[in-house]
Amino acid sequence: MDRMKQIMIPATAAMAVSGAIQVGCYFLGLRTFVFPTSNTAVVFQWPWLVALPLAGATGAYIARRSGASPFRRVIAALAPAWLLMATFAALSIPAIIIGDLRHAANWVGFGAMLLSWVAIPAVPLVLGASPFLGGAETARHTDHTHSAATSA
Predict the structure, then answer these.
(1) Is pLDDT at 79 greater than 80 in this prediction?
(2) Is the pLDDT at 74 greater than 60, yes or no?
(3) Domain definitions of the chain by residue range
(4) Are 55 and 126 in contact (CB under 8 A)?
(5) CA gap 75, 77 in Å, rounded
(6) Alpha carbon distance 46, 53 (integer Å)
(7) Whether this model's pTM surpasses 0.90
(8) Which among 42, 52, 59, 149 could bridge 76 via Cys, Cβ 3.0 to 4.6 Å?
(9) In whole angstroms, what is the distance from residue 106 CA to residue 39 CA?
(10) Do residues 125 and 53 touch, judged by C-beta distance below 8 A?
(11) What is the DSSP letter of 116?
């Protein structure tokens, strides 16, 4: 039950904020930067990256309110990056394996996707979460201490 309150619910909130930001960027018509290389491209969706600290802060804040440890707060804040990594792995690795493993370009393309959509977004997510990583695990522990003090 603690994992649900401390990781899953805050992670879901972080993913919802991240998704809402991405949808908002799309409907506002905000442009992305694409840096093509010889066989792939690195994509910087800068409006989403600039607003992404809000998603990290949301996940870490909710996790802290539920009494999560700093490690669990980071896990919750990084949920949008974890989801994208799992999605790309689920879609790309089987395609690479079924395709031709002799071509390094397949793995370079996968690496570029991970850089664009996982590693780079992880930085603003953690930056947004950083104000909520310190401090005590307040919600559970203070309630138990307070109820024990009032019943005595």
Answers:
(1) yes
(2) yes
(3) 2-142
(4) no
(5) 6
(6) 12
(7) no
(8) 59
(9) 9
(10) yes
(11) I
- 130 three-class SS: helix
Nearest to 40 by CA among 96, 83, 78: 96
Handedness of CA 10, 14, 20, 23 (dihedral sign): negative
The alpha carbon of 9 is separated from its chain's Cα centroid by a whole number of angstroms, namely: 13
Please state, in angstroms and rounded to a whole number, the distance separating the CA atoms of residues 147 and 93: 52
Within 8 A by CB and 6+ apart from 60, the residues are: 10, 73, 74, 76, 77, 128, 129, 131, 132, 133
pLDDT digits (tens, 9 = 90+) for 96-135: 777 765 566 677 777 888 888 899 999 999 999 999 998 7
Asked if residues 42 and 35 have their Cβ atoms less than 8 Å apart, the reply is: yes
pLDDT band, very low/low/confident/very high, at 144 (cuts 50, 70, 90): very low
- Both ends of the chain: CA-CA distance in Å? 28
pLDDT of residue 147: 45
Whole-angstrom distance, CA of residue 129 vs CA of residue 134: 10
pLDDT tens profile 8-43? 999 999 999 999 999 999 899 888 888 887 777 777
Q: Indicate the SS3 state at residue 41.
A: strand
